[in-house]
Every structure is written in structure tokens, then in C-alpha cells.
Amino acid sequence: MTKVEYKHTEIAVKKKLGQNFLCDRNITRKIVALSGAGADDNLVEIGPGFGALTKEIVEVCPVFTVIEKDARLAAFIREEYPQLKVIEADFLETPLDGIAGTQMLRVLGNIPYSITTPILFKLLENRRIITSATLMMQHEVAMRIVAKPSTKEYGILAVQMQALCEVDYLFKVGRKVFRPQPGVDSAVICMTPKKSDPIANTKEFSRFVRTAFHQRRKTLLNNLKEGWNLEGVASDTLKLRAEALTIEEFFLLFSQLRPLNL
Q1: 213 and 186 fall within a common domain
Q2: What confidence tens digit (pLDDT) does each residue in 145-160 have?
Q3: Residue 68 to residue 258: CA distance in whole angstroms
């Protein structure tokens, strides 16, 4: 069992929680600086761990909220930073509207590899109350988020994130700055929700994107024909694979379709 000790507090790392603790202050400073966090922000940190990022956030935003699932780490943060609001809970099960109140949220975090995608989709669902989210994650996932069309990384995650947010790849983080050291590198991205949704029915658009990419090697025609009315759609478009379409082309195609079950 791997254990991490910090300020005489020894905690066994829980692999199921994806715990890898950042220990390079230059990187945490850079994350906070690039996030744009300030004293007046209604800020939320996801999974503070031993507070490596927390320590830097406090320098610019003295009072904010942290969400920590591990009871021992939550107790540690309460002791180290008594001015913070500590929510001891799973981020995925924590209502964000109650934290936001009347003020938009700015989100930061070194998020667990194992639940990165669910966290991203939770943030997307709550995008209307989020100013931005600056997150460290597995490098491979970051590349999938910012991927361009006609690349192997471009898929459901890229389209859904880029459709509703401006996404920026900020910088890469090597594996050696974590304890315990993970088997992969990390990266920091920033997602900023667009001021208004470019499409009216975002849930239906999400279903459409998942269907379009259902079998990557198949054409749009083969993936969509059983669930959507394709009349009026150019045959040249339907001969393409989903990975060939830009975000704007996804919007256009979606506007031309009607679900067959309606």
C-alpha cells in the first residue's frame, strides 16, 4: 500500500479515488495564474488532497469552497485552512447550484483520472453557472478534448466540449511531479462556457453526436439511418465519417435531421 506523508500526516493513497498528489509549487502557481482567479470569485476546488493547489488559490482568493470525498483529507484541509468551506462529498453527487447561489462559479482542480469524463460532463451540465474551469487531467484526455477533425483523438468528447465551450490546452505536466508517480503525463486545460448555446436542444444534440460516432469506421449514413430522418441531407455529407466534420458542420447536419421516433 502506497502512503503519502505531509506535515506529519500520513495517508494511504486510495487507488479507487485516483489519488496522485501534486508536489511542484511552480506548477500550482502557474495553474492559479492562468485560471484568472481573483479575490471576488465564487471559487470551487475539486479534490484538494493535501492542498498543493489550495495553498496557491488562498493567496489570491482567501475564502472559497473545496469538495473532498476522502474524509481524512477533508479533515486535513479543515485544520490547515479553517476559513474555507469544506464539503465532504463526491463532486459528482454535489449540487453546484446551491454553491453558486447568485454568483457564477470559477472551478479549479487536479481531477482524478478515473472519473475525468463524468466530471467534465457534470461541468457541461452546469455551464450556465460556471465562468470557467481550469483543470489538470491525464494528458491523453486533454488531447481528446482539444482534438481537431480528421484525427484519431477527435470524437464525442471533443465535439461535445467544443460545441458548448471554448477549450484551451494550457500546458503539459510531467509525471515526476506527483506522489505517487502515475504511469502517464498530465496536462492543464481551461474550459470557458460560451455565453449562449449555439443550439437549442443540447440534450438531443448530445444524443446525435454519440450516434454519429457509434461505430467510428462507419459512415454517417450507416450510423444515423436507424434513428434519424435523413431526407434533405446531401449524400456527399452522409458518405463521410463523423470524424471528418467540424463543429459547425455538426451543427448544420443536426439542424437538418429529425429523430424517427417523433
Answers
A1: no
A2: 999 999 999 999 999 9
A3: 43
